[in-house]
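SEVERITY: medium
COMPONENT: batch folding queue
REPORTER: lab tech (J.R.)

DESCRIPTION
The queue accepted two submissions in a row. Attaching both inputs and their returned structure tokens so the on-call engineer can compare them side by side.

ATTACHMENT 1
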Amino acid sequence: MKLIYSIHQFDVQMFVGLNNRVMHGGLVKFCRVISFTGDGLLYVALAGCLYWQHGAADLLLQTLLLGFAVERPAYFILKNSFKRNRPQQAISGFHSVIKPSDQFSFPSGHTSAAFLVATLVGYFLPSLLICLYFWAVLVGFSRVVLGVHFPTDTLMGMVLGTSAAFFSLNYIL
């Protein structure tokens, strides 16, 4: 229990330090846009485009669907088991830039989904892998800057999304 408390204290210090340094209008606007790209609309559009394609796109669509079928339930179970308060509830006097869609913060669903998509699309289109992972990291970073997640929330999102992607690749291929 003491280890968890120590990790939480370190996480809060990192969060406060980052948010005290980066709350600049331009960065917040940029982070809003990046965060929006992880809201899910692009994933639905990607699935729609892949549905109309043939060949390797069918395999990518299958792995994406399986990946989300594994990742989303795991995400909900973790989020509702840990019940970690978001920064606004955990840090007195802090107000997030945006209103989160749910109550708890651990893990970050935006980050998890972004890493799932980045890993799977990057597997099938390796020339895009670095750009996709850069985008996924920015999604996680944006969630911290916008004040709705602690850094470890996004770190766990990264682990969850990547793990679900590898599971789906191993199952489908």
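ATTACHMENT 2
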Amino acid sequence: MDSIYFTAYNTCDMKTQADIFHEDIEFFHDKGGLTTSKKELLESLEKNICGKVTRTLIKGSIEVYPIKNYGAVEIGYHKFYNNREPEAKSTPSKFIAIWKQENNQWKMTKVISLH
């Protein structure tokens, strides 16, 4: 699911991103604060990320732990490259995603993005 989501993120596939975010998403960003509106989160991603930022997973960094009767927690490291700042150094940052399995679909319910 990480690969599916971030392929959509990197290619500005807003429909797939919308399908993956749970209606009750909680997105915690250490610099930007908390977003609890799926609509606002998607609008922000489209405005600030699409065509500007690419995410790369740090190979071997993903840890996934099942959560009984709920889904799973994913922990890992990734880098972001901003094509508007080609000289900026990209350093690995940690993320945590809580995934819920509903009706045979995986949805992100919580994301913690640490830079």
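NOTES FROM REPORTER
The mean pLDDT is 96.
No errors were logged for either attachment.
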